[in-house]
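#structure-requests
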Amino acid sequence: MLNSLSGRFLILTTVFVMLAEVMVFVPSVARFRQDYLLGHLERAQIASLSLLANDMIDADLEDELLRNAGVYNVVLRRDEARQLILSSPMPQPVDVTYDLRDASPLTLILDGLRRLVDPEPRIIRVIGNPLRDAGLLIEVSMDTAPLRMAMIDYGLRILFLSAVISIATAFLLFLAVRVFLVKPIKRVVGQMQAYAAAPEDGRRIIKPSAGVRELREAEEALKMLETELTHALKQKERLAQLGGAVARVSHDLRNILTSAQLFTDRIEMSEDPGVKRLAPKLVNSITRAVNLCEATLAFGRAEEPTPVLTRVPLAELVSDVMESERLATGEYDLSYSEDVPATLHIRADSEQLYRVLSNLVRNARQAIMATGKPGEINICAEEAEEHWLIRVTDTGPGLPAKAQEHLFKAFQGGARKGGSGLGLAIAAELIRGHGGALTLERTGPEGSVFEIRLPSGTL
């Protein structure tokens, strides 16, 4: 109970209301003391009227009048003359004088607190204005013991009433919190538990219904999160199914390519100059395809195998990529250029780096050819202090905003209509496996630049 939101709210509300009542209690007690003293002044003035009406009264009547007024003596100033109207013996001298005529609220509060905390009975003198201007002032002497007892009694009644108000207010707020906050929160928690049991079930996604604005905003944010998670889980399931299908296809494709690899031996023996020139390219392509199929079968999952880092002559690798793309370009007006130092060797997995560069150049070629305009693709490389930098630049139309948002995410970053969106995702994953990064340096109507940053390390 006490550890719950509503229980703690109940306790805090009770405490805060009690604090507010204490702030009201202090001036209330001071006001009670002032009214008490003014009341005694009023009764003393009424008692003094008996003597003013009859100059001679007996001692018993005078004593009765003073007892009824609750004072020891009464002094009335009329016409600048100070007259002791009624008097009786006082048990002790006057301790302090209080003038109620011009007392400030702070003075009244401080005097009231002093009297409340002082348990010793004392004689005090009180000065005030007579009622209905019946003189210049009236002054009485009185005992503080009855005053303090009356103040304590009044304070206890105020505290009891404050406690009742605090508990009633806290209970009502407790009920309100349970209805408007706790129950909606429990409903959201229950829905989250139900969704966690079967996150693939779209029917379990929360439907915002809270009336409180903040809770409704939380429900809407939760709905968006659950919707995205359900979509991601379904996509993951599709990817798993696709991975199984790819593994089966790769198995059969590997067998076919292995057979084709055997025929290339005879092709290399041909005396035809064109065949001699293209045969090594064909052999390399088939070899790469076989390696890719074997890697797919070996891992059978979405992750790429760990790269086997060797010393790779980058210029030769870039030349192979460009030559393959030139063959695919045909008669289209598209030029390829390389700016890679012939002596530059980098530490990388040659097969995986070939796939990365091939993906980037192929994407650029397809984008340029889709515009129907001539273009250029360039690969340049340089060695920095701690990195090798490879840039693939094209003069294509640039990437649309939607493609940039999910550029390196599988099935989401495709910039070409009909594309799978896998090329850049695969390329980024392969570069991450090298400890590097693939980034889009810039894009726009003038073209795009992709940068590959590989740690140099030790060759």
